[in-house]
Write a structure and sequence with these properties.
This protein has 3 helices and no strands. The protein has 78 residues and is mostly helical. The chain is elongated.
Length: 78
């Protein structure tokens, strides 16, 4: 069981590092000041889920879920 704990800890550290990188790669919410003038209705505003930024958001959510699951598993005394 010690080997499994070491493997999960290494995966946990990698998930933490990747989540930091993804969060820093995203634009801030204030970067889209064109939304005031109606630029949010452009092609990029409608298809944000398929753009690179949409993929960054999805990746961040997936890594956040993995972070919490691994944290709970590593906290168990097995």
């Amino acid at each position: 069981m010690a080997i499994l704990r070491i493997i999960l800890t290494v995966i946990f550290v990698l998930v933490c590092a990747l989540s930091v990188v993804l969060v820093l790669a995203q634009e801030g919410k204030s970067a889209g000041l064109g939304a005031i003038a109606g630029a949010a209705e452009s092609y990029w505003g409608k298809n944000k889920g398929r753009s690179m930024e949409g993929n960054l958001v999805k990746g961040t959510v997936a890594l956040a879920v993995a972070f919490f699951v691994l944290a709970i598993i590593l906290n168990l005394n097995f």
